[in-house]
Amino acid sequence: MSPAPPAVRSRALSPVLPLVALVALVGLPVAPGGDGGATPADALSALVVGFCAVRLLRQRRRPLSRTAAVVLGAPVVGLAVAATGAVSPGAGISGMGRYLQVFVLVPAAVLLLVRDRADFRLLAWSLVALAGWQGAVGVHQYVTGTGASYQGQPIRAVGTFGPQDIMGMASVVSFGVVCAVGLALGTASLRQRLIAVGCALALLVPLALSFSRGAWIATAVTCAAQLALTGMRQALRAGAVTVAAAVVLVGGFGVGTALLQERITSITQVTAAPDQSVTDRYSMWAAATGMWREQPLTGVGLKGFPEYRDAHASVALSAASDTEGAGAAFRRQPLLSPHNMYLLVLSEQGLIGLLALAGSWLALLVCAVRGLVRAKARSGRRVPDCALVACGLLIWQLTDFVYADIGGPSTVLTALCFGLAAWWALAGGRTEETPAQDVVDGWAVRRPEGAPAR
Length: 454
Known about the structure:
With about 450 residues, the chain is mostly helical. The chain has helices at about 5-10, 15-25, 40-60, 65-75, 75-85, 90-115, 115-145, 170-185, 190-210, 215-230, 230-250, 255-265, 275-295, 305-310, 340-380, 385-400, 410-425; strands at about 150, 155, 320-325, 330-335, 435-440, 445. A hairpin with a 2-residue loop joins β5 (about 435-440) and β6 (about 445).
């Protein structure tokens, strides 16, 4: 019997399966009262990077194109400088390792392991599935009163992440909404688009119950951008459906409506009558700016913000937040970052680090949007779903970084999202669907027009 064609063999053992396992591992419950540190997902991400490296060596192929190497490698410059100025060698090494994991190594591994749009969609649906699981746990916490404490009531949906990572479930569910919206608006089959619409609408419930203003804002901005990228007519239709779903969602909560309305209203009161969490955030932002003024080029060094915080913060800073519920006892959780990724990088890495890191993100966004426009012009119809998902995940992350930074068990998904955006921006935007490609040893190779299949 003749051996199976290369495409069949490679599809049966897809190289993105370790990435799917990485997504699934993030959904495992976090030990109550955990103090952070490395998680099983972090360990698996290191194995994924090693697996990718071994695969490249076996295939003897160049790892990255010149453009990809420059874009993904740009943050290394600022990290190397900031690591030398860290408060201790250990802090410099661990801080540099974390940044390399999230913004360089794992994204590069995703870029290299995703072969085609089918692999991309598999990862996108994996994020939707994870969001569904976390959302179901979060809704159960709200209904049964077993969630994290919010205004003295144990109703805040946090999923399996617990109150120590209050943004974990909100981020995961937001990723699911963004992926589902991209899949619903793209070129997938009608059946897949209808399923994606249902998933997106269902995930709005746990997203609302997370009471996370930053996640709400980032998701709203991202979905609006995705709709705008698809064209005005389709954007208006989808916008009408979204508004109707939001009315039903808020109107159907009953007891929770007042809390949700109060939380939504507080978004517009961040300057007039800010609550303590907003006051703390302003104080930490001012502290980060003060650190940058002292060391404008290189910053205070990696992981230096906690060491220099009190010397630059105002007396309005409470220095810790109260966490309780979802299986964890009451504890005071110290505020060790400014909850703004741009200010965190500016304070610890200075202008050199911020320009290198933010420049890498901006280059990815420009390349991703340019690939989307080109793909839409080639097809003359719908925008590719992979393009909408990639651009959406990147826009969400860059928007959320205004209110949050890296940290916690869900951080590895940030690396995965940057990897998906990098694949579309640096490789996927220049390829057609898999049927127009040959797959050789697990790699999608573009076939010239009119050339026979291998």
